[in-house]
Batch of 3 targets.
Target 1
Amino acid sequence: MRTFMLRLYEDRIPAGHAPAYLPKAPRSVYVVEGGITVEFPQGSQHQGRDSAWIGQEQIALVGGEKNAVLWRWELVAPDAAPGVMRSAPGVESVLKLQQEIELDEQFDWLMRCDRVDFPPGGVALTHVHQGPGIRCCIKGEITIETQGKTTVHPAGSAWFELGHAPVLAPTTQASDTSFIRCFILPQGCRLRSSIRYVLPEDAGKPKRQHYHVYGERMLSLP
């Protein structure tokens, strides 16, 4: 097993800001508001609101016509320096959450970024996943019950899920709820759901949540 640190930052990039540089690291960049252009060694790509870029090359983030808010996940060594933007005094970066994780070197791994949407009162029945990850609520409110603890997460709140620890996750009756997720999975999960239901009686019940995968990339672990 190898130990890594999974970090989630919130970046705020002013409109028209000069390129801000980030070194090589497996990362997902989700656009909460506005838009940016991601420049990488092979080219560039514009990312608008509610889209994500995934890769592990060194990149430059270029501000668009509007102020941008990003959620940026990075997988780094436990003692890695903070993932601040290089030569970007106008950019505000805040570490929302970080968590040490262990990955089995007998597997090859991928990084996936997706979105989960619930109608009012929707619930993710008791389940596990095939790998760890950090989620962040973007709309509504979700309750996470796992390992004997219960936490409530409104919009903007982030939490970590171990993967193999069972989770029950009801959402508020007051509104729709959505969260954005970045997690690390064995490469055998490519193009496949990673969820497994713990209780046999739950497997066949109707599921009201919907999933949208922004992308996934095979990793070369740092």
Target 2
Amino acid sequence: MVSGVMGVRTKTMLFIALVILCQFLFILPARPALNQPPPMADLGRYVYSRDTYWIVYDRTVQQLRNEGYDVAGEANWLLRVNYTRLDYTFTCKITRLSWPNVTIQIVEGSYDLNVTAHRIMDDGSVGERLGSFLKVKMPPYPHSWDSWDPNLGVGFNPSVLSVGNTFSHGLLTYVVNRTEVLAGTRWSQNNTCVLYGNFANSSHSYRWTIWCDTYSGIYLKQVVWSETPMFRSYEEHNIIETGVQRDRFVVYQEGKIHEVQVATNSTLSGFSFDSAARKISLSVEGTSGTLGSCNLTIPKSMVFSGFGFEVQVDGKKTDYVLNEDADSYFIFVTYLHSTHLLTVSFVSSPIWLQWWFWLIIVAVAASAGAAYILLKRKRSAIPTPQKPSKT
């Protein structure tokens, strides 16, 4: 009888354990391990944000004049200057991915800049407004930096998004404070984790609040406060859209923004542009033994006069097909699949292939020919002296 009761209890405990196990396996969301790329770690993953941003500096009248603003007052007067970006948007995108290292590129949109200056009085209070200025269509500026797990620039590894978890990245220490639904936004269907990040010492203070999608790690909203001896700032990102764009990449060269397009049947796992070396690099891979192909569309505005192309696969020169239209060059290259590094370098063409070289040759030849003919005519016009006759 006792053994029968023990058998029932054992079966009951096993049943309960099985139910609990099923709950974990089929109901609770699986999270990736810390050493595995999170779902949002894709080349071309981007977030497009609308940004509210202001920053306050203390400047002298002369310093503000040096920035190009015609402000009234004595040159040494101290001013409280507020710089506010209007209609400011930017895109944050992963342009190189070699897990766990990634390169993040920020490309700003053009925006208007409102600048307001108030005088700081001798007692430290803020006095009259001495000027207000508006600069329209400020030029966009892209910049890149390397990052690593868990912060990818467009989000966090979801494996760290557990309420109460604390982790560090760079200067900041983050704590996952709570979960929250972003009501009244296009993301209201998303459950988010709210992260607080902070750093402070005797002179610097940074405070971040970040709303991340719980299951993908993509951030949907950020609020940032900063304060140093030189400035105070406030910034709020509100995400307009997120997505993956693997076939178009924005590059920055000589103060200008260009777009390079990539069409390939390979898996593209990395894209970068070295403006100093004038070189595009792509990491591609595919099933061994199959034929891979890649077609790059490069704006002619990127290629300086007198430059051509050199294509390499894993550091070895390879043949390619070059076509062009009025605005772009099209470079087509094929290779047998495995994992490859493709590079397209902008190289100076040999001097004998330069149009201006042959123009100079023709001009010099024409000048030499004209000079020869002119000299010959002058010589033929001079009478030949005759010998005196013998008497």
Target 3
Amino acid sequence: MKPREPSAPPPGEAREVLIVEDETRLREMLTRAVREMGFAPTVAGSGETALRCADNREFDILILDLNLPGMSGLDMLHRLRQSQPDIQVIILTGFGDLDAARRAIHLDVVDFLTKPCALGSLELALDRARRRRFKTVEPDLPIPDPEPEPMRFMPPEPVDGTLSLEELEQRHILAVLEKNHGNRSATAAELGISVRKLYYRLGQYQKQGLLP
């Protein structure tokens, strides 16, 4: 199949992507894919190296592996947010960790991709991150008043006993929603996120068939 030519970014839209991944082959694959999708990649093999890159350059999007040598991915992200608060984050992980999922929710990441990720999923995540970086994603959603009838659901059960970080986040949000009897405002407050952000996530879950 003939390789796709890189698409040029629209005028005024920088697409600087910082890729933080310690596995050499995956890092090289991500670099090629990101470049072919019309973005400008910078790579780092550790959180410490990534922070040094960020000292000299502003990035629009971060693709971050959580399981890094030395500094953890989430610790690195917390520090990077202090200097570049508008950076949009795509989490890349090969393992599930509930505490990491909970912390990532508070850091308002764009998407979770489980390694190995499909290039189509990566492209969709990058497009969402780019549009969100330039305030063109997640339109204002109407918040019903009063609260609608409580939703009834059960968090999805894993097929093989293992969960990706994305699935852990889903289960955590749905469990808190069930605990609060479907009350979105109380759920958002307990999760530490905005009601608008909660509605956005619930809309995603409805499309996936996780909610009625």
